[in-house]
Amino acid sequence: MNILVLVSGTGTNLQALIDAEKAGRLGPGRIAGVISDRPAYALERAKAAGIPGLVEKAGSGLSDRILHDAREMDAGFIILAGFLSILEGEIISAYGGRIVNLHPSLLPKFGGAGMYGERVHRAVLDAGEKESGCTVHLVDAGTDTGPILLQRKVPVLPTDTADSLAERIHTEEHIAIVEAAALMAERLNSK
Ligand code: GAR
Question: How many domains does the chain divide into?
Answer without folding.
Answer: 1
